[in-house]
DNA sequence: GGGGAGAGATGCCGC
DNA sequence: GCGGCATTTCTCCCC
């Protein structure tokens, strides 16, 4: 234990990226209060002093501390602790280390950013460039039009000159998407002093209750798929190929 | 490289929790499309076949695959890949391994769940038990009352018998919190066939525009802090104690 | 730094 | 599985 914790403390001092696996319990106090009883976990301390605690299952960390947190190993009555505190955010975390299985530490170098396509913004741009996806005669005027009550994805008018507000969702449009659209429509009616503004939800799908609410308010749903420029795989494949033996 | 990748493949077969550090590039196709150029990262494959890729900075993983994804090492023209696919979700990820710095694999055991307090639900319970936090004479009738347009945090009536709907937020109430409240108020008016229903936002803070919108609709903001039962630290401390040397 | 909103959101609970 | 919604949301963008 002692050699492991000394190694961790030394790596903390050198600002390296540290990974270790341990049996531990965790206490957190900050935006909420939390306690996690003893179990096996993986702990990562990154170069920017982010701390992550992962259980052996699940996508999200069970506990964490944000970047720029101070970390220190302490020993009391032969019990080992990793104490973290972020004074600026008033957040505190203590890991009681019952056992350490392995530790690794490296200086890692990575200046790359993820290049992603298929976001809601990409959808809005696609609609802006291909307005017929909404309806024949739709003329977009602006994207991300700002109002006090939020900003509008695509703003324009139809073939009759009636103003149109389009709210894009990349997956299933829900109740809050509909109230969001309503907020913009009301705001534009108020700002322009007119009563005739159309509201459109553009998404691949919409939940039944949301569609009911949408129709109750006189708005319209248009089915649109988000664009995916980088697509390389055939998603309809049924042949597992290389993977067939490990399914 | 070859011994590392063989070790990884063998650990995948044994369903262990694997951690390795490497230089790699990543390609993802699924709900969106993404590419991450070469850099140093930490990769975790968990016992439930969740995969996480972390850069040396930041809280969130830069790429990931959900639980129950199949993983396999492949070698083509002396280039090493970790290929992951989740056929059920139609998601695919390929890591091109340029270099591996270390690998570790263990069978980890952890059946514990995080015990958390200070959530929105805790706030609702606190208000239910201490209705004077909202106002003198408030009588709560139910929590999580269900409507077609969502469920209400705390439902009750005031000293005059007027129905009241309370929406709790654990941090700053925003525009969508106000529209959410409005949705419930309108739904209850509609269901009960009455016109007099009060709406309350209970939160520590509310954004200025949200408060304006709230007041425009005749609703009210009440300042309430979320409860924190596990609090052990004095957050107003200015003495850094053990941490003073590493700030 | 605050406001506003998306996210490959995730996770939880309910039906 | 979908629906509805909170989250120690995180992250980005813009003011």
What does this structure look like?
Two copies of one chain form a homodimer. Chain A is α+β, with helices and mostly antiparallel strands. Chain A has two domains: 2-106, Protein Yojf, Chain: A, CATH 2.70.180; 120-223, 3-Layer(aba) Sandwich (Trna Endonuclease, Chain: A, domain 1), CATH 3.40.1350. Chain A is built from four helices and 15 strands. In chain A, the strands form three sheets. A seven-stranded antiparallel beta sheet of chain A has the order 4-3-2-1-7-6-5, with helices on one face. In chain A, strands 9-10-11-13-15 form a five-stranded mixed beta sheet, with helices on both faces. In chain A, strand 3 and strand 4 form a beta hairpin. The relative contact order of chain A is 0.11. Chains A and B meet through strand 1, strand 2, strand 5, strand 7 and strand 8 of A and strand 1, strand 2, strand 5, strand 7 and strand 8 of B. Chain A binds a DNA duplex (15 and 15 nucleotides) through strand 4, helix 3 and helix 4.
**CATH architecture descriptor of the largest domain in chain A:** Distorted Sandwich
Gross morphology of chain A: elongated
Biggest sheet descriptor of chain A:
7 strands, antiparallel
Approximate helicity band of chain A: 10-25%
* CATH fold-level name of the largest domain in chain A: Protein Yojf, Chain: A
CATH C-level class of the largest domain in chain A is Mainly Beta
Strand pairing plus helix content of chain A: what structural class?
alpha+beta
The string of secondary-structure elements of chain A, in order, is HEEEEEEEEHEEEEHEEHE
Amount of beta strand of chain A:
35-45%
Low-confidence residue ranges of chain A: 230-247
Most extensive protein-chain contact, per-chain counts: A-B, 88 and 88 residues
Supply the number of structural domains of chain A.
2
**Computed CA radius of gyration of chain A, to the nearest angstrom:** 26 Å
**Number of H/I helices of chain A:** 4
User: In total, how many beta strands of chain A?
Assistant: 15
Q: How do the strands line up in the largest sheet of chain A?
A: 4-3-2-1-7-6-5
Q: What oligomeric assembly is this protein in? A: homodimer
Averaging pLDDT over every residue of chain A, what do you get? 92
CA-CA gap between termini of chain A: 39 Å
